[in-house]
């Protein structure tokens, strides 16, 4: 390349040689400046890289220290893992118990709300939220008080009259210690009292007769409408005889669990053994005595119709 440059320079004239050298010198200087700038930049980058390497090294040392700490903590955590598992199991059991208790309380709350709503519909009220005003001169209270006083006076008067009638029937005289009887010592008053007693007894007898007549009328109406004659055999026990019974002894016996007759129980008879299917269907499955009696009436009626 030097020979080429020399041949190239020899071809140039002295006048052309100097500008060419100057230009090449400037280019060389520019190249040197660029190299210096590039070297400076590389040195800066090198120093930055060295600084980053130092930082990374320091960070690596810190990470090693942290790793050692973590390893030591991991060992302690493994030791406490068994304890934490037992605590977790106990906490789970407590949570399940609390959930069960919460569901139970919710159910009780719903039942209490239903009861409260039922009481509200029945006319009950909450004294803390509802204020009830009572009249000082309530007509109903006055009527009750007046009726109570009249009833008490009538009872006292009846007791005095009974005692007086007992004394008079025994043929004795009126005792002085009998309260309120001294005013009935005259024969006219005694006769009037006897008339009142006879009138009361006659009235009671008429009431009994009317009551017996109404009872018989009611039994006939029930027999005509329902098709069953109802008789009381013993206490809380009733005999039902159908109007379509084939035999006179075909009857059903029901026993009430209480005097109010809220729950009735069918007792076994010879006739009940012949209608086992109706008992199983309407009493055991459907739990309906009216449906059982209606089905039995239709069955007996169909038998008579076919016959």
From TrEMBL:
PANTHER family: MITOTIC SPINDLE ASSEMBLY CHECKPOINT PROTEIN MAD1 (PTHR23168:SF0), MITOTIC SPINDLE ASSEMBLY CHECKPOINT PROTEIN MAD1 MITOTIC ARREST DEFICIENT-LIKE PROTEIN 1 (PTHR23168). It is found in: Chromosome, Centromere, Kinetochore; Cytoplasm, Cytoskeleton, Microtubule organizing center, Centrosome; Cytoplasm, Cytoskeleton, Spindle pole; Nucleus envelope. It comes from Aythya fuligula. Keywords: Acetylation, Cell cycle, Cell division, Centromere, Chromosome, Coiled coil, Cytoplasm, Cytoskeleton, Isopeptide bond, Kinetochore, Mitosis, Nucleus, Phosphoprotein, Ubl conjugation. Its main location: nucleus. The keyword Cell division applies. GO terms for cellular component: centrosome; kinetochore; MAD1 complex; mitotic spindle; mitotic spindle assembly checkpoint MAD1-MAD2 complex; nuclear envelope; spindle pole. This is Mitotic spindle assembly checkpoint protein MAD1. One of its GO terms (biological process) is mitotic spindle assembly checkpoint signaling. Residues 25-217 form a coiled coil. The keyword Hydrolase does not apply. Component of the spindle-assembly checkpoint that prevents the onset of anaphase until all chromosomes are properly aligned at the metaphase plate. Forms a heterotetrameric complex with the closed conformation form of MAD2L1 (C-MAD2) at unattached kinetochores during prometaphase, recruits an open conformation of MAD2L1 (O-MAD2) and promotes the conversion of O-MAD2 to C-MAD2, which ensures mitotic checkpoint signaling. Pfam families: MAD (PF05557).
């Amino acid at each position: 390349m030097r020979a080429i440059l020399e041949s190239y320079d020899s071809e140039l004239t002295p006048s052309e040689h100097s500008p060419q050298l100057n230009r090449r010198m400037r280019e060389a200087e520019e190249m040197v400046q660029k190299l210096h700038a590039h070297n400076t930049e590389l040195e800066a980058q090198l120093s930055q890289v060295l600084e980053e390497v130092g930082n990374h090294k320091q960070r690596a040392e810190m990470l090693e220290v942290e790793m050692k700490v973590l390893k030591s903590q991991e060992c302690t955590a493994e030791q406490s893992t068994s304890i934490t598992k037992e605590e977790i199991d106990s906490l789970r059991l407590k949570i399940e118990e609390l959930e069960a208790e919460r569901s139970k309380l919710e159910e009780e709350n719903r039942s209490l709300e239903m009861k409260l709503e039922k009481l509200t519909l029945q006319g009950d009220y909450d004294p803390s939220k509802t204020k009830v005003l009572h009249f000082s001169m309530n007509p109903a209270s006055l009527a009750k008080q007046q009726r109570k006083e009249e009833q008490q006076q009538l009872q006292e008067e009846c007791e005095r009259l009974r005692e007086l009638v007992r004394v008079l029937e025994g043929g004795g005289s009126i005792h002085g210690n009998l309260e309120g009887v001294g005013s009935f010592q005259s024969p006219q008053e005694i006769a009037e009292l006897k008339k009142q007693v006879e009138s009361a007894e006659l009235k009671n007898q008429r009431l009994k007769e009317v009551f017996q007549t109404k009872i018989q009328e009611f039994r006939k109406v029930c027999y005509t409408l329902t098709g069953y004659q109802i008789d009381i055999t013993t206490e809380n026990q009733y005999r039902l005889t159908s109007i379509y019974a084939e035999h006179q002894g075909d009857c059903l016996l029901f026993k009430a669990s209480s005097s109010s007759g809220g729950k009735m129980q069918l007792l076994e008879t010879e006739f009940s053994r012949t209608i086992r299917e109706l008992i199983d269907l309407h009493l055991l499955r459907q739990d309906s005595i009216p449906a059982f009696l209606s089905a039995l009436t239709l069955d007996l009626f169909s038998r008579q119709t076919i016959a």
